[in-house]
Every structure is written in C-alpha cells, then in structure tokens.
Amino acid sequence: MNIQQLVLDHWSFKASDEMEWLSAAVPGTVHTDLLRHGLIPAPFYGTNEHDLQWIDKKDWEYKSSIVLPDGWQEMTRIELVFDGLDTYADVYVNGQHVLFADNMFRGWRVDVRKLLIAGNNDILIRFRSPIMEDLPKLAQLGYDLPASNDQSELGGLEEKKVSIFARKAPYHYGWDWGPRFVTSGIWREVRLEGWSVPKISDLFIRQEEVSSDKAKLTGIIEVEAAAAWSGRIRIGTEDMSWEQEVELEPGLQTITLDMQVAEPRLWWCRGLGEPSMYSFHAALLQDEEIVSERSVRTGLRQIELVREKDEAGASFYFRLNGVRVFIKGANHIPNDSFATEVTRERYRHEIASAAESNMNMLRVWGGGIYEEDAFYELCDEYGLLVWQDFMFACSMYPGDEAFLGNVAAEAEYNVKRLRNHPSIALWCGNNEIDSAWAHYTWNTGWGWKEKYDSSEIRDKIWADYKAVFHRILPEVVNEWAPGTDYWPSSPLRSLTGDENQHATQITGEGDVHYWGIWHAVEPFDNYNMKIGRFMSEYGFQSFPELNTVLKYASEEELELESEVMLAHQKNGRGNQLIKEYMGQYLPEPRDFKSFLYMSQILQAQAIETAIEAHRRHKPYCMGTLYWQMNDCWPVASWAGMDYYGRWKALQYTVRRSFRDVILSMDGTEKGEVAVYLVSDRQQSIEGVLKLRLYDFSGQLLHTMKQEVTVGADAADKVLSARTDELLGSHDPKRVVLLAQLEQDGAVLDSKHYYFESLREIEWPEAAITVEEVPGSGGTSFMLKSDALARQVWLSAEEEGIFSDNFFDLIPGEPHVVSFHRRSNGNEAFSQGKPGLLTVRSMKDFII
C-alpha cells in the first residue's frame, strides 16, 4: 500500500446555538444547505436577499465521522486535507483542536495520525461568523478603510465595512451587479491522505525556452519523505522520458530534472492555432516499482506582456510564441453567488460561449475567487488566455503582520496551484485600487484619500498597499512562476512612483478602464475617441430576457421602478440610466416587456461601437475586454450572457465584432462614410468590397465596388465615400447601406449602415418568413422579410444558441441560421432542433 486517499463526503450541519443536525452537501455552503431543507426561501427570488442577512451573523457547525480502513493505522503519516474552508474555521478531531483556518482561498493540511483511533473518528468544524469575527478588527484599527462595493447597510451594519479584513470572496459582501450573501461552509473537497513512502506533493513543468524548434524545460518535483530513501525519479510524456538517481532526506525537498522536447507542438490561443497539450507523468521508482506518482497537463508556449517605449508612450500587448496577439474578450466574474453550485457543465458553457464568440482571453476579475481547476482546464482546452487577478478589488486593506502573512501564503498556494496552465498569461495584483486611491495626485481618484485629515493615516494606508501589491505579490510570482508577467493594478499606466503612475485619464501607456459611458453618461461616440493602449474594462447594462426576469419577479412586478426590479439592479440609478440612454438612441418601447428587449439592443449597440473603435486603432490599441461575460444571479447587469447562460443580443453582436476579419463603418464629421478593414490573421487579406444601397422595401438604389487589401495583423481605412454621393436624392431615413467583403465568392463579413439615428427612423412593418433548410433535419432555417427588419430575434423552446441572432434582414437578402442545443456532454453545444421557434424584430417592440 503506497499513498491512499479517502474523501469525506457524509456531513451534517447546524447553527451553533441549535441542537438539531441536518444533512449537508459538501462541497457546499450554509445558504444552499438551508435552502435544500426548505428552511429559507429561494435567495434569488424577489427581495428574499434582504430577509436572509441573519445567516452571516451566526456561527455554524459541520460534522462527519470516519472509520479508518484496514492498514491505515500502520501508515507513517495521515493528513486531514481541506481544499477550501470558508472562512474562519476551528477544526476538531476526536475532540482535539487541530486547526484554525482564516482564509477561504488557501488549502489546509494537518497531521492527525496520532489522534485517530480504531472505530469512529469524529470531525467537527465550527465556522465563526465572518461579520462577528471582523467587527472587532475594525474597532481596533480606529479608522475606516474604503470598500466601495461592500453593501454593509443591506447587511444591517450601517457604515461598518468589514469585508476588507476577511480573505474571502469580496463579491460575497455585495457588488454593483451582485447580491450580498456572506457565506460559510466547506466549499472544496475534504479528504484523508495516508502514506509511508516518499510522496510527490507537487510537479511543475517550468518552461525555460520554447520555440517551434525545441522546448527546454525543467521538471520541478516537490517530494515529502518520512525517512531517508534512495531510488530514481522519472518524468515521461508521450514517447519521451527523462530520469535520474535521487537520494532523499527526511522532510520536504525539491528535485529538478532538465528536459528537452524537439519540434514541440505549441499551445496557441484561439485564432492562431491549435491549443496543443502534453501530459507529463512523474514517478518515484524503486527498481521498476512505482512508489509515488503525479501527473500534470500543460501546453508548451512562450507568453509575455510587451511594454516598449514608442512615439505615443509605451506599448501594452501580449506576444505568444513570438506572435503579437490582439486580445478580444471579456471580464469574468463567478458564475454563482454560491460558488459550489457551479458544475463543470456550467463552466464549459461559459468557456465554449467565449470561444464561440471568437474571444481569445477572459480576465478573472479580482473581486471573485481563484477559480476551480475546471475553469482553467477548459480555457487550456479551448485556447483562451487568462488574465488572472489576485483577489483584491475596489478596497484598501490592512497591513498588519498577520494579514500580510496570510496574503503571502494565499498567493503562494494559488500561484503554485495554477502555474502549469498554459492559458495563464498574466498575474495582476488588484482591480482599480491604484487609480481609486491615486496617491501621488489630489482630487483625481475616487475621493478616498481626501476623506482622511491625517497625512500619517494616508501614508500608512498607502504603505500597506505597497507591501501587498509592490512587494509580496510580485515576489511570489517571481519565485513560484518565474517568467510569468506581473502587473500591479488594473488600470495602471506604469509603476513610476509619481503622478505618472495612475490611470486616472486615458494616455499613451498602460491599460484603461473607461467608464465615461455609463457612469458619467457620456455619449456612445466617445468610444471612438477615448481609446487607450489596452482597454481592460468598459461596459453598458441591459436586462436579461423575459424568461429570466420571470425567474425572480411576478407579472405584477414587471415595472422599471418596482421594488423587485430595484432589488435586482445593484447599480444605483442603473434602470434610469438605461432609460435615459434609450431615449437618446432608440425608439420608445411599447411596454416594460418590450423595454427588456430594447435594453439588450441598446447594450449591443454601445459595446459594438467600442469594440470596433478599439480594433480600428490597432496596433496602437492591442486589446479589448468588455465588462462583463457572465452573471452570478438573475439581474440587470453588464453581462452578455445571463445567469442561466442565455445569450443576450450583446453576445451575438460581439461574436460578429470579434471575427478574425471584419468590416467597420463610421460616419465622419466631413459628411463621409469611412469603411475600415480589420484583420487579425497572420497574412494579408485581399478581397472585393461591395456597397449596395437599398430602400426599406428592398429596392436596390445604388451600387459600388472596389478591390481592397489589408496587411497581416492590421487595420486600414479602405474606402471613404461622400454621404451625398451614396444617398443621391434618397431619404436618409428610409435607406440602408449594405457593405460586404468577398473573397473568392465567399462573404467574409458584412455590415449594415444607417444614415440617421435609429431613434429618428420610421421602421416599416415587416413580415418575416422562416423555412426549414432541406436536409438539415430541422436544425437550420432560412429567414426572409418583405420589408427591412431591424434586430431580428429568434428564440427557441430548447436551451441553446443560434449561429446568428439579432441581425437585420433586407428584402431579397435571405439569411440562414442553424440552432445548437446546450449539451451536458463533452461538447457544450450540439446541432439540434429548437422546438417551438419564435421570430420577432424591433418593430414588434416599439410604439
């Protein structure tokens, strides 16, 4: 018997001040256990969130028991292992206190061999209320620390924001898109591990030098030995292996093994090649007997953040295997307020949706969690790069010795856990804190530091900040994932230690969070002007579709300012902002149900404007990550895909805007229409640009065409035409310009252009017909219209996505779409029948 594991999955729970034990799900949370027993109402429905704030003020207990299998008591070492305890937890084994955990993001191990007995062994975990644990810390500190999104008032704490003391998912305390559910519980696996032989506890394949010719690697093997041992270590992958003799001393030690792979298959992100993976298997051998073993999967690649001085300031782009990459993607938040409810299928749906949307990166934002292994494994598989924040966001943090030590241990644990994933392109210290505090300038950040009269307190808070983000975190990344880039805060211009550091305005270096549109109610056209080197956040809200809204509200509550709608809108004036912007850009919706649809059209229009502006400005701008990919509960938010995984209009729109080759059209102040050709391909593109002007009945009024070309990985204006020449004598409110790029008879991209504001146009009544494509088995359909139909929305009875949706139909220009059902298997989507199909266009929703 070598190394054995025994998973503890039979648990009970209760409140510490109660007597009755109830069955518990582990991994799980107190909230979800209470819900399963019918002791609380559905947390996401109506205003139930407000009535469940008592849960986080109580202590909770979980217990289990285990009988050791035969042979276990002869083992030299038996550890009780917790992959995740949320958050303040005292652990007892057979009545003996063995562990106090104080960090949700760390794993915990404790040697319990001497405490285990024949027969039942009792495990008890007492979770202290994170609120009651941290309130005294706030009183002891003597001054408040900023925590903008901590919904302390909803939690009954008035202005006492304690989230900053707990190393726990910040979004649990509320955010401007999420509810306040401060959870407790065993949120990752618990097991016993027993062994007497040397144990391989960690395997890291460090990539020293990677090219298409060769990959020079170092196997870093951590081994824990109970006694001195001699033998061999072997690492193998496919038909290659490397080995050496080893002499182990008692205790933890590290072995290194040099390796080289000739002509390796490289890992590429989506759009550049295949995300090839290798499995590396390490084994300790005595003669030919395997004593201990461990495997990892990784991809061989070289990824770097390139920041080089240039005429405009400094570049900010990612280079993968020597190739410059224009980043296209979104910001990811946790998929659920209760993280243990997220299945691998839900992860696959999100990652596959990102890949289907032509993305090549997701940013794991710093107010959530270091995601489950499944998330990163799927990003590896689908070729999605990951910008990985450490879990700090929109707050200032304490700097006492215990807190800093806890942060260092958390960082080491997670960097080591995730460092083999080829998808991880960058570790980032935090979200928005540098620019919010803006230490080196006055009245340019979020007004945080200006609230402190004492310069001594201001300097102390900033010194504590620097200890975490300028010292501890970069040191951890450098030590445990050498070669991986670290960026102190997003956004940031450069780590200069003076007023040039903070990204409080858009300049020629660093990354940018641009929120003038939305928070400052700036016009959509500002997306075309306010462009940085890398746009790592920007966004616009919408409501989810009616089916999702009815999951949290009744028909009687379908009103913009109803109590329930306001409870499911966490961004202050959010609902009114949508209405105000809609009044500027779109026709008036018929009713609230129509408002839901129109809000999605508005959101898609905003983000399409931004993405295309960013892409037109390559190589000055080399990345665009909109806020946000997903939701953690059903809500009005910036997400392109709602809580149930249903694609909004935005998701379909970015799928088109993120194609490798796109046309982009822009009206200029000089009375011209400019057409841009943007390509992310690594070779030049040649084709024919065709422009056709139609009236709304489908009559062709004007045509023109010309040959166009764009270089590799480039963007160029390929045509500029005077508006009056395109229109002639035709009414600009009654025509549409269709631009198509053709190559060898195939259409690479097409765009519709309107000469007037969509609000000013009188949209015609349109009869849309849907015909099943012969031979498709009821999965593909041809759509035609007798008049121009704007933003055609297909909805299906089955859950899934269409190959295209929310598109415009011109009479005489049919459009074929196929349906792909959401799958529970290894593929996220599979071609299938949609069931009842409903087709509507914008005219059906406006007055």
How does this structure look, described?
The protein is of the alpha+beta class and 847 residues long. Helices cover 19% and strands 34% of the residues. Helix 6 (401-418) runs parallel beside helix 8 and helix 13 (592-616) runs parallel beside helix 14 (649-657). It starts with a strand and ends in a 7-residue tail after the last strand. The model has no long low-confidence stretch (mean pLDDT 96).
> Count of DSSP E strands?
49
Radius of gyration: 28 Å
Describe the main β-sheet briefly: 6 strands, antiparallel
Strand order of the largest sheet: 3-2-4-10-7-8
User: Which structural class should the secondary elements be placed in?
Assistant: alpha+beta
* Share of helical residues: 10-25%
Query: What is the strand content?
Result: 25-35%
Stretches with pLDDT under 50, minimum 5 residues: none
Number of contiguous helices: 15
The coarse overall form would be: globular
Mean pLDDT: 96
Distance between the termini: 75 Å
Please supply descriptive tags for the structure shown above.
847 residues, alpha+beta, 6-stranded antiparallel beta sheet, 6-stranded parallel beta sheet, 15 helices, 19% helix, 34% strand, globular
Summarize the structure.
The protein is an alpha+beta fold and 847 residues long. 19% of the residues lie in helices and 34% in strands. Strand 28, helix 5 (373-382) and strand 29 form a beta-alpha-beta unit.
